[in-house]
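Subject: Protein record for review, amino acid sequence with backbone structure tokens
Why sent: The fold of this protein is of interest and is recorded here as tokens.
Notation: Tokens come from a learned vocabulary of local backbone shapes, not from coordinates.
Attached in line: The record itself begins immediately under this heading.
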Amino acid sequence: MTGRRALSELLVDVADGVLGFAPPPGIRPTSMVVGLPVEIEVAHTPEGPEFRAELPRFVTRTSFDPTPGRLTVRWAEE
């Protein structure tokens, strides 16, 4: 089981994965959209509230488990 981490850390890991994507020769992507299921909570830290997020902990879900949220991130060339 993994603990939730700062939402910014999750976004950095997702961005690293996207940057590792190697398009086929002759194709130059100018934008990418990534949609992920996430479990999000607000944690109280000495610096103030912090959003923490992680991919769902379990593949299967029961009726007792809360439905994960959905995070969609779009990167585009400017």
About this structure: Residues 20 and 57 are 24 Å apart (CA to CA). The radius of gyration is 16 Å. The mean pLDDT is 84.
